[in-house]
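Re: beginner question about structure tokens

> Can someone show what the tokenized structure looks like for a real chain? I only ever see the sequence side.

Sure, here's an example I had lying around. Input first:
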Amino acid sequence: MTVLEWIIALLVIAGTLFVLLGSVALIKLPDFYTRLHGPTKATTLGLGSLVLASMVFFNFIEQQLNLQQLLIALFLFISAPVTAYMLIKAGLHQKLTPAAGTQQQELMKQRDKLAKGE
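And the corresponding structure tokens:
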């Protein structure tokens, strides 16, 4: 195996591990807010690593310049944080309660005090 193939293999393995970590976080974390954090961060990084491995493979080994993968990565890194932000805002609007002992719980108490005018 060449050095380039090792790099591609490492990117694919890292990408799959991050996607797996994000999926496990979605299942195991206690409330809506923390469940959203895992997939947003880890899965975005994992999918970015997989797209990067694909770009390296097709651009250097297959000798094909393919800009579609660059657009996929760009769309992924722009849309994932925006989607997470909108879901968090929807959760706050619905007044979903965070898990006990999280920092989010303190922020919710402060928000309720401000809404009451205290």
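Each token stands for a local structural state, so reading them left to right follows the chain. The helical segments are 3-28, 32-61, 68-93, 103-116.
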